[in-house]
C-alpha cells in the first residue's frame, strides 16, 4: 500500500499534505478546487498487481489506503468479454466489453465506494454521507451496511421508489430533500461539514476517483497491454476521470508505453461535460459548467457535473474526446447489447456502445483499433426502462399447436 | 475436461451412455427417472482446480463439457464473505456468506445455465428452452443471447412484468401460457421434444446440477477445507442437489475427508421437498411430491419440485436436513442480511439466514460448527419486495436544521 504523497488542486496546482483536507482546495473552492491524489513516483512498485488478492486491492500500491481498512464486499475483478462478431461487423481490430456492473451493488460505483469507505475507516470517521438518487447512493449504502458504519443519503424529492427501497433495505438514513438534485448535493455537503460525516459524493471526494481508476488497471492487466481506445459514459465525470487517471498512472509508472484514447459519452440532452470539453479545446476555461439536463438515462442526467475539471483535462491528456448520443440511440444500444452480447445494461451503461457506432461511422475508430467499452450500470435496477415500448409477448393456449403458430408468426 | 462416464437413473439405477438420453430414464419417467451424471473414478484429477481459469471452468475435470463450448458470460467465482460478528453472536465456530448472486444475470442459476448451454453447443442443438418465471429464465435468456442461440421461455400467464421485461430485453422468445406454472413446464417439455429444443428446466436436465455443484467446489477451494454445515434455499431442488453432489464428489475424489451437513430451507407454505424428506426419513417413498405452494418468496414457490429425488437422497447422504421458515422470518432475514452484512438478497435468497437462526436456536448448530450460507438470488429484481411495509424516509426542507431534527427524531 502506498501512502499518497500529496493532494493537488486541479486548478491552481497547490499541493496539500495527505489527509490535511478532505474535499477541495480552500482557495479555489468547489468544484474548481477539486483535488487529485499524488503518489511518490520514485518509489518502485513491487507487487503490482498483487497476485494474492482478487479484488481491486490487488492494486494496493497505487491506492491511498490498504485493504486492512476495507469492508467485506468485493469490489473490482469484473469480467472483460471479447465481442468478436461486433468487432468484425464494425471493422475494428478487436472489441471487448468490460462488464463493470458485476459488483456488489451492481454498478461501477462500488470501486470508488470501496476505497472511500476504507479511507473513512482509516481516518476514524464515524459516518458517511452522499447525495445521489442512484448507483452511488446504493453503493455507499451497501458498503456502509457491510462495514457497520452509519450512512446518510440525500435524495431529491422525486427520486424513484425502487431506488429508495434499496437504500432503505441497506439501513441507510435517507433524507428526501424538498428540492432538486443540486439542493440535495449542497445540503449533503453542508451537513457533512456540520456533523463530521465523510462525504462520498462523486466529484467532491478525491478518493472516489482513486477507486474508479482500478478499472483501467484491470483492463491493462487482463489484456497484457493497453487498447487503442476506451469508451465510457459520463454524468458527473468521476468515472471517466478515474479511467483516465488509471491509464495515465500506468504510463507514468513505466508499466505501459502509452495511454489509450479515452472517449466520454453523454446524452445529447445532458452534455455539460462534452460542451465544457469543446470549450476547453477552443482555449476557453472549463468552468462554469451548468446546463439543463434532460435524458431518459437517469444515471447520467447531470446538469452541474462535479468532476468536470478532471473529466475534461484528463480526457484531453489521453488524446480522446467526447461524443453525444440521442435517447433513442441509448435505448437501442441497451437493447442490442442485451440481445446480442447477453449484457443487460441500463441505458447509460450501454451508452459506450451507442458512441462506438458513431465513432466508427465518423471514421474516428477503425481497423487498427482495439476498443474496450466499459459498461457501468446494470439494467436490473429498472428492467422495464429498457423494454418500455417493445410489444408484449404473446399469450397462448397451453397446447403445442399454439406454440407452433406463435413461432411461425414471428419467424 | 472429463467426458462423463454414464448417466444413471436416480430411482432404478440403470445406466445410460453419455449423451444417449437428454432428460430422464424412459422406464421410470419424469421425475422419478431423473438422471445423475457419473465420471470415471479411476481417472486421477490433474488440474483441479485449473489455476489458469477464473470462472467455474476451473473445475473442468469434473464437468461434462469443456470451456471451448462455453459462451462469453462468466459464471462462478463469486465471493465468500466472513461474517465474524454474527458468528460470535450466534455462538458458531465461524460463519461465511457465499454471495452467489454476483453472477452475470444476478442469481446462482447462471452456474447450471453456463454448463447446460455449453452442452447444447457441444451437442449441436440449435435452440434452448425452459419453463420458469424467474431466475432460471433470465439466466437462460442471458446466456443464449451471449451465445447467439435462440431461446424459448414458457411463463405462466401471471408472471410479473419486470421479470418478463428482462427476458424480452435479452431477445428471448417468450410464451405467456394461459395456465399455471405446471402447465407451462409440461408445455415447455412437449415443445422441446417436438421442435428439438434443448430444455434447461431445473430438475429435468441433469446438466443443470453439474453446473450448480461448482458452488461447493468454490467453497472448498476458498476455505482450503469443507465447513461443518452449508445452508441453502430449496424450490425445485436442483440447486441443493448440486451443492450436495459437489461435496460428495470432492470426498469421492479424495480431495476432502468428509462432507458438510447440507441443510435445505423452504418456506413453510411451499415445503414439498421438506415434507418428502421427512417421509423418506420414516422409510416412505419420495414420490409423489405435490402440494399447494404459497409464499411471498416467489423463487421458491414450487408445489411440484422437479428435482425432489436428488434433493432428498443427497441431503440424507450428507447427514443434513430440512428446515421450514415462515414468510415473516424470510422477510426479516432479507432485511437483516442487507442491513448488517451489506448483501441484498431476495427473500428466498436470504432464507438460509432465517434457517440458521432456527438451527442455532434448536441446538443443531453451535460452537464447533463452521457454517456457510449460500445466497442464491439478488434483491435487485424486486427491491420493493423486501421493504414493502417499512416506513417511507422523511421529507425535509433543504436546510441544516431540518437535517438535525430528522437525525435527532430517529436517534
What is the secondary structure topology, with strand pairs?
The structure is a homodimer of 411-residue chains.
Chain A: E1 6-9, E2 15-16, E3 35-38, E4 80-82, H1 84-90, E5 94-99, H2 109-122, E6 128-131, H3 135-147, E7 151-156, H4 161-169, E8 173-177, H5 181-195, E9 198-199, H6 206-212, H7 214-223, E10 229-233, H8 238-252, E11 261-267, H9 272-281, H10 308-318, E12 321-325, H11 327-341, H12 351-361, E13 370-375, H13 383-387, E14 395-396, H14 400-410
Parallel strand pairs in A: 5-13, 6-7, 6-9, 7-8, 10-11, 10-13, 11-12
Antiparallel strand pairs in A: 1-2, 1-3, 4-5
Helix pairs in contact in A: 2-3, 2-6, 3-4, 6-8, 7-8, 8-10, 9-10, 11-12
CATH topology term of the largest domain in chain A: Rossmann fold
Query: Tell me, what is the CATH class of the largest domain in chain A?
Result: Alpha Beta
Largest interface: A-B, 84 and 84 residues
**Which class do the helix and strand fractions of chain A yield?**
alpha/beta
Query: What characteristic shape of chain A results from the CA principal axes?
Result: globular
Helix content of chain A: 25-40%
Sequence of strands across the biggest β-sheet of chain A: 4-5-13-10-11-12
Can you give the mean pLDDT of chain A?
A: 95
Number of contiguous helices of chain A: 14
Q: Identify the quaternary structure here.
A: homodimer
Stretches with pLDDT under 50, minimum 5 residues of chain A: none
